[in-house]
Amino acid sequence: MKRVFGLVACVLFQAAAHAKCKTPIYVIEGNVRDPGNKPVPEAIVAVAWLDHGHASAPVVTTADSAGRYRLEFRFDMYTRRFLFGDVCKEKLAEVATSVMAPAYARAERRIPISGTETVADFTIEPAEAGGR
């Protein structure tokens, strides 16, 4: 019984510490265009990042008819260090992005993050005949 109580106390302590840390909402938005500066409607834009050393689940959206997209997601700042208590020092430094659309080659790049709002525009090239 003591072991079960100790385990429950540890879990509750971790949850309480985690709740004290902020989970800011990050926004990445921009445009997807072709080399002629024409919008690429319905392009799929995805971002992922390292979260405590592990790949996050991707956040995905689709560009509108004008090629505009907007992604919103939360980032957990909690360090998960039990011995140090409520330490909230995790930072989102960069995200990996992937953009794809029918008849276009996939574009991938890393985007540095310096605040909670980032603008990232993409130019994607037409796919080669018989290629992707």
From TrEMBL:
Region forming the signal peptide: 1-19
Asked if the keyword Signal belongs to this entry, the reply reads yes
InterPro entries, alphabetized: CarboxyPept-like_regulatory (IPR008969)
Q: Which UniProt keywords apply?
A: Signal
Name it: Carboxypeptidase family protein
UniProt organism field? Dokdonella fugitiva
